[in-house]
Amino acid sequence: MLSDLVATLSSNPYFGAGAGLIGIGTALAVLRRSSQYGLIFFRRQFMITLEVPNNDISYTWLLQWISHQLRDSSRHFSARTTLVKNDEPSSRIQASYTFVPSVGTHYFRYKGKFVKVERTREQMINSGVPFESVQLTAFGQDRQIYIDMLEKARDAALLANEGKTLVYVPTINEWHLFGRPRRKRPLNSVILNKGVLEGLIKDVEHFLSNPQWYIDRGIPYRRGYLLHGPPGSGKTSAIMALAGHFDLSISTLNLSQGTMTDDRLQQLLSNVPEESIILLEDIDAATVGRHYEKEDNIRYQGMKPLTLSGLLNALDGVISAEGRIIFMTTNFIERLDPALIRPGRVDHKEYIGPLTSNQVERMLTRFYPQSTHNEINQFLTQIEQLTDNYSKQLSAAQLQGFFMHNKDSIKDVFANVNQLLCL
Ligand SMILES: Nc1ncnc2c1ncn2[C@@H]1O[C@H](COP(=O)(O)OP(=O)(O)OP(=O)(O)O)[C@@H](O)[C@H]1O
């Protein structure tokens, strides 16, 4: 019965052709599938891959190192432009360019092996910040090749950053390098009241060189500083100079901006880059005068903005083996909750106030090294009269601005001194 049916169908020319086509199609599909499995098997057995996402601290270093490896073999790069201004008041903003491998596939040879580089980028729907990663693939099974590359990339970055301060800023829940590394701010370029900067240096030095003291007493190895005082008095500048002096980077968060929530702050403070000072600017804005408004619902995507208890929890969670230094700044210490600045959270408070005559003198001689004794005295008298007449105080930022307007000659300083408090 069945053999009759088979004989009938096979003698039918239409059916025979169809079966042939189906057979070829099936064979091709099997071949394709098995070659895919074969490729996967081959990659798993004989190749080793490494993916580095852009939220990893080595991502930038690695990209730069790869672009160096590709300099002769690839012609497809992306440009990274950064505007750089060093801390000298008179310096101009300059653009600086670096080339990194473009999105796509590249190849280079490393220690006799071919390495495939695949750089990808995906647009994140919520944040607007693209997610990027770079994947390296090489023959072999020894992961040492990647450890080697990462270390080379880090060493090259450290060498390039010698004498510079790195500044990290957050994007969503991760930290990213902000602009190009800046030239270290020299300590003597920050002119504070006598002994203030020296006291801070001594305190940080003592903290960094005595981890055992904290371990022996079971105290979290961290130290909190609060610099408070009017705008433009040098709080941020002092912290930049300290970071440069101790060879630390700065991870900075402005709590008065953006969309900070308890969870986000907790997450950010728990993954601050190593050997970095945490700088929380305008700490008073974190919790003061916050009214939860309708539009906040959209801005914070349904999450509650930062609360005082969220801030305290996040600060208490900041622990690190090599010691964490947290600097907070505010123009309004009176607005801070006592819990925020109690010892353990803030161990060292410093008032950075308006200019004293000693500071004015040091700033004048820094800008006009040729100024005579008489000129210095004359200027100090004029400043005293001006501030008395207008019942105003003078900030270092104001004086710096005034000197920059009159940088060619000290004669201009005396001619225009009445404009000083207008700046
Ligand atoms: N004491 C100072 N010595 C030298 N330069 C200073 C001093 N204070 C301010 N400046 C200059 O003024 C500008 C602003 O200073 P800075 O940002 O450090 O002030 P701040 O106290 O942190 O201000 P704010 O409270 O508004 O954040 C910088 O260009 C800095 O170089």
From TrEMBL:
Keywords: ATP-binding, Hydrolase, Membrane, Mitochondrion, Mitochondrion inner membrane, Nucleotide-binding, Transmembrane, Transmembrane helix. It is a single-pass membrane protein. GO terms for cellular component: mitochondrial inner membrane. Residues 22-190 form the BCS1 N-terminal domain. It is found in: Mitochondrion inner membrane. It catalyses: ATP + H2O = ADP + phosphate + H(+). PROSITE patterns: AAA. Pfam families: AAA, AAA_lid_BCS1, BCS1_N. Its main location: mitochondrion. SUPFAM superfamilies: P-loop containing nucleoside triphosphate hydrolases. Residues 221-356 form the AAA+ ATPase domain. The keyword Transmembrane helix applies. The chain crosses the membrane at residues 12-31. GO terms for molecular function: ATP binding; ATP hydrolysis activity. GO terms for biological process: mitochondrial respiratory chain complex III assembly. Belongs to the AAA ATPase family. BCS1 subfamily. This is Mitochondrial chaperone BCS1. It comes from Rotaria magnacalcarata.
